[in-house]
Amino acid sequence: MIHQAPPAKTLADSLRRYRSPLMGIAIVLILFCHNSLWFDRGILNELNRYARSMAQVGVDLFLFCSGFGLYHAYRNATSLFGFYAKRLIRLLPAYFAAALIWCLMQRHFGEPVRPFLQQYALHAFFTRGELIVWYIPGILALYLAYPLLNRVVLSRKRLIGFSACVIGLSFFIAAADSPCLSNQLKTVNEVLLVRIPIFAAGAYCAAAAIPSPGKKAVFGSLLLTPVLLVCLMLSMDHITAISWWWVNRLLFAPLTVCLIILALACLEKWHTTGVVRVLDFLGGITLELYLMQERLLIYLQGYVFPFAESPDAVMCLNLLSVFLALTLGYVLH
Fold it and tell me: What would the 3-class secondary structure string for the chain be?
């Protein structure tokens, strides 16, 4: 007999119960974002381009869930050293193990290792604007800053003020055409800085007693989601005064909230199904999947099967990279 879980009374209860499946949804979006598919028909390629860009909302979903989990980790930590130690132990061994695997692959295929290591250095995202596995140094920076951010997320007024300041600074960096602002700073801004409010919002949802989303919230999210998706498409093609990428990331914040509300409603209804169990499994190895899949695809297409150029062959390579990433990611985890 299947026992139904009691309905969650607060948003924090729902997020705590379904955080792992939400992370699973996020990694599915990211894996799709990393695809290299192309099609014979131009309209399909355009749709794939739009879908890949929008799938990056998975990163914002990661950050929201990370902020939510970090609030509890910080509150339950016995010391600041213990808090930092657990965060570093979760991230760095997997990161360096993956880097070692890719260094061996670089040597095997006769590619230079030193430039690769410079790309994988944790400081490279901030000092050189490197986007190879940028998420790891980015989330580490947020982890290090969280003790200072904690008091902000405990107050709605502080959170709103902080978010307004971050978005204002981010807009200035995105809009300014000044030689004083380096390209590295603009890259960090468009990829990480503009997403800090959604990270803080995740922590705030853990701290505040927000009621669990009701039917009105779900219905509103259903109406707002397609509007935001259309705005994302328009930002890609028609914004030129400032970086469309910055606008794209900024729109991800309300889209993330809508997706979370819709996802929680679906997970609450179908929490005993196999799909949710798969998402729960994927949510447990998100870091390892993120570290493995994109680089695997690069090696498969560049060295193992360089002759695979048809749409069907590229589709198979993308699926193969996901299967191998699942296997290696599970072992690494």
Answer: CCCCCCCCCEHHHHHHHHHHHHHHHHHHHHHHHCCCCCCCCHHHHHHHHHHHHHCCHHHHHHHHHHHHHHHHHHHHCCCHHHHHHHHHHHHHHHHHHHHHHHHHHHHHCCCCCHHHHHHHCCCHHHHCCCCCCCHHHHHHHHHHHHHHHHHHHCCHHHHHHHHHHHHHHHHHHHHCCCCCCCHHHHHHHHHCHHHHHHHHHHHHHHHCCCECCCHHHHHHHHHHHHHHHHHHHHHHHHCCCCCHHHHHHHHHHHHHHHHHHHHHHHHHHCCCCHHHHHHHHHHHCHHHHHHHHHHHHHHHHHHHCCCCCCHHHHHHHHHHHHHHHHHHHHHHC
